[in-house]
């Protein structure tokens, strides 16, 4: 909490200010993730005070194989203390629903990079409603063609334009 997380948060601030570029932000996220992979199992086994920031399931929707942005978001979330379950790319709607049912995450993040796959984000939200799970999980959407207006239109809880914003809205959703 006093070493890695402030470091990656600083990288986020510099990126937002236009003083750091995307490859550097990716490196910061990846470096922190590697450190977390080593530290977290030790901290969880100790008597320490570590507490997960929340559980976050993320994936790129069905029919869409764009991986890079989703993976950056996923790395930044893990680097910021979330337990991230990354389902990868081309994830069928039913898989998202099954994982929400099974893992009971705090947040579900849906990435879509194609205008033709954006409706899959709505499909997932509708499927969660049908299964009576919609009020059990916050749903955030993102990806280059996605907008705040689209998020509102499909009944998502929010939209993030980049990885830094994704971490910010996730933290505020957990902190209330
Ligand atoms: Co594709 N592709 N692509 N592509 N591709 C785009 C998206 C496109 C805009 C290019 C263009 O035409 N100008 C266009 C989409 C047009 C549209 O629908 N509006 C396009 C197309 C058409 C296609 C194909 C259909 C091409 C074809 O086959 N004819 C095809 C589709 C395949 C499929 O998915 N079924 C295709 C394929 C591919 C590759 C496989 C070659 C490759 C992906 C490789 C990979 O991911 N492993 C690829 C790439 C690389 C791109 C571009 C060039 C770059 C995407 C990227 O990685 N950006 C892209 C052009 C562009 O975006 N300028 C393009 C960098 C990344 C860091 O940004 O993904 O936006 P981004 O993620 C950001 C934010 O959006 C946000 O945070 C991230 C970090 O800042 N974010 C989230 C993303 N997900 C989030 C989830 C959240 C929150 C925030 O959850 C809450």
List the keywords:
176 residues; alpha/beta; 5-stranded parallel β-sheet; 7 helices; 52% helix; binds CO-5-methoxybenzimidazolylcobamide
Residue-averaged pLDDT? 91
Which structural class do the helices and strands define? Answer: alpha/beta
- Low-confidence blocks of residues: none
Q: Order of SSEs, N→C?
A: HHEHEHEHEHEH
**Each distinct ligand:** CO-5-methoxybenzimidazolylcobamide
- First and last CA, distance: 20 Å
Rg, Å, rounded: 16 Å
Largest sheet data: 5 strands, parallel
Query: In what order do the strands lie side by side in the largest sheet?
Result: 2-1-3-4-5
What is the 3D form?
Answer: globular
Could you characterize the architecture of this molecule?
The chain has 176 residues and is of the alpha/beta class. Helix content is 52%, strand content 14%. The protein has 7 helices and 5 strands. It has helices spanning 4-16, 22-45, 68-79, 93-103, 118-130, 148-153, 163-175, and strands spanning 54-60, 82-86, 107-111, 138-142, 158-160. α3 links the parallel β1 (54-60) and β2. α1 packs antiparallel against α2 (22-45), α3 crosses α7 (163-175) and α4 (93-103) packs across α5. It binds CO-5-methoxybenzimidazolylcobamide (B1M). CO-5-methoxybenzimidazolylcobamide (B1M) is lined by residues 63-70, 72-73, 109, 111, 113-115, 140-145, 160, 162-163, 166.
